[in-house]
Design goal:
Radius of gyration: 14 Å
Number of domains: 1
CATH class: Alpha Beta
Shape: globular
Strand content: 15-25%
Helix content: 25-40%
Oligomer: single chain
Strand order of the largest sheet: 1-2-4-3
CATH topology: Ribosomal Protein S5, domain 2
Order of helices and strands: HEEEHEH
């Protein structure tokens, strides 16, 4: 049986500082895989995030495309789950990754979890390759 430790996306791994998020939008690099757009910037190591490889994330869904908050929240839950699952399979805990990332859902309809997981897998592989260069 697998241990639950290390399979969570805790509060320290989530971005909430408005100044940092605006910096990501202004100075960040971007990658795209339908229906997700990724904006990211390298960051300094944060000691409280050792379990999360110093990766902090935020998720965004457009109010213009999804008027209902129920739909926006459902999409954000799906995105958090896809990130949580895919990041554990792609990133090695011994790697020294330092990123701040914002995932933006740009689809016009709610996609199934399998489609969202494929997009996250592709984006996370691309960011891992970019880090290794």
């Amino acid at each position: 049986m697998l241990s639950k430790i290390g399979f969570q996306l805790g509060k320290p791994a989530r971005l909430s500082n408005k100044k940092v998020i605006s910096d990501i939008f202004q100075n960040g690099n971007s990658l795209f895989s339908y229906p997700i757009k990724l904006l990211f910037v390298p960051s300094d190591p944060t000691p409280q995030l050792q379990d999360h490889w110093n990766i902090q994330v935020a998720f965004s869904v457009s109010k213009k495309n999804f008027k209902s908050s129920v739909d926006r929240n459902k999409i954000k839950r799906l995105c958090r789950e896809a990130f949580r699952i895919q990041s554990r399979g792609i990133f090695n805990p011994t790697e020294n990754l330092n990123f701040r990332m914002t995932f933006i859902y740009i689809g016009k309809q709610i996609e199934p979890l399998s489609t969202i997981e494929k997009a996250f897998k592709k984006l996370l592989f691309q960011i891992k390759e970019a880090e290794s260069k």
